[in-house]
Design goal:
- The chain is α/β, with parallel strands linked by helices.
- It has 2 domains: 149 residues, Ribonuclease Inhibitor (Leucine-rich repeat, LRR (right-handed beta-alpha superhelix), Alpha-Beta Horseshoe), CATH 3.80.10; 139 residues, Ribonuclease Inhibitor (Leucine-rich repeat, LRR (right-handed beta-alpha superhelix)).
- The strands form 5 sheets. The protein has a 12-stranded mixed beta sheet. A two-stranded parallel sheet has the order 4-6. The chain has a two-stranded parallel ribbon with strand order 9-11.
- Helix 3 crosses helix 4.
Length: 358
């Protein structure tokens, strides 16, 4: 018993001392916080990923360096890594399998780099990843295979790129995704099928794009949606069915700073939307007209009641005019019928009178 206890005590002491020596060996290039196994290597001028990290590191900060590429093997032996920060570098390329050893990674920050493409092998080894930050890069298109292995992802930030289109199956494997940030891109339309598998999505930010068309069924799969931000896009009008397809109770919609074409049809759509209890138009009071010219800059909430009134008056005037024209035509037709009858009758009477005189 005593011998066993001595062995256990010796092993633990040796392991603790060895770990302390490993963490002390991180050297002057990086700062170590041993309590949380955090290695701060930010803003150190690294042009390559150092290969001598302590193997039990859980948090690694390499932000603000001069990295240009991430190659396979750069993060070898970091099986316990939970957080990897690579923002504000000059990264343009990521080799297939560069993150493959990081099976325990929860957060990966690649924002503020120069990444233009994501290959099929980009997500290899990232099956445990919950948060992926890719904002402020140069991505233009999202391929179907780019996020192939991200089954556990909860948050995806793709803001401030140059994304013009999203393939129908791009997010098909992200069934656990809750937040998707696509603001500040170049999206022009939302086609059916883009969000087909995002049944857990709660926040969808599409603000500051160029969206001018939203297909009626594109939002139908989003059965958990709590916030939809479509502000600062190119929407001139919308269809009632597009938002009626959202079945979540209490969904908040943001639609300000779009170039709304204010007419009676748009007024009817918003009147119906405001009557749907499960939807909340949080910024309805901030919506303003871009067209027609006489209403430009006017709040929609103040002119909407007048839109259909003016249109109703116009319809009544046109209807009244048509009725008058029709009645006038009927009267003229009846008058034209009576005149020949009168002439014919006069001729017959004259003949009878002449016959009687004879």
């Amino acid at each position: 018993m005593a011998a066993g206890f001595f062995c256990w005590f010796f092993f633990c002491t040796f392991a603790t001392n060895a770990q302390a020596q490993v963490w002390q060996s991180c050297g002057p290039s990086c700062d170590c916080i041993t309590d949380i196994k955090f290695l701060n290597c930010s803003h150190r001028g690294f042009s390559n990923v150092p290969g001598d990290f302590p193997p039990d590191t859980e948090h690694l900060d390499l932000s603000g360096n001069l990295l240009t590429g991430l190659h396979k093997g750069g993060f070898r032996l970091l099986w316990n890594l939970r957080v990897l920060l690579l923002s504000d570098n000059n990264i343009t390329s990521i080799s297939d399998g560069a993150f493959s050893p990081l099976g325990s990674l929860w957060k990966l920050d690649l924002s503020q780099n120069w990444i233009s493409t994501l290959s099929e092998g980009f997500s290899l080894g990232l099956g445990s990843l919950r948060e992926l930050l890719l904002g402020h890069n140069q991505l233009a298109f999202l391929e179907e295979e780019s996020f192939l292995h991200l089954d556990s992802l909860r948050k995806l930030d793709l803001s401030a790129n140059a994304i013009r289109s999203v393939r129908a199956r791009t997010f098909v494997y992200m069934t656990a995704l809750r937040q998707l940030d696509l603001r500040d891109n170049w999206l022009g339309r939302l086609a059916n099928g883009v969000f087909s598998s995002l049944r857990s999505l709660e926040v969808l930010n599409l603000s500051r794009n160029r969206i001018h068309s939203v297909e009626a069924g594109v939002l139908t799969p989003l059965v958990s949606l709590a916030l939809l931000d479509l502000s600062q896009n190119g929407l001139c009008t919308i269809r009632f069915k597009t938002f009626l397809s959202i079945r979540t109770y209490g969904t908040h919609l943001l639609l300000r700073r779009n170039p709304w074409h204010c007419d009676c049809d748009l007024q009817r759509v918003f009147r119906k939307l405001r009557s749907v209890r499960r939807l909340s138009l949080d910024d309805y009071g901030d919506l303003s007209c871009a067209e027609p010219a006489e209403l430009r800059g006017h709040p929609l909430s103040r002119v909407d009641a007048e839109l259909c009134f003016a249109e109703t008056v116009t319809v009544l005037v046109i209807t009244g005019t048509v009725v008058i024209v029709v009645l006038a035509a009927i009267v003229m037709a009846e008058t034209s019928k009576r005149k020949p009858v009168a002439k014919q009758g006069s001729g017959e009477n004259g003949g009878l009178e002449e016959y009687a005189e004879n």
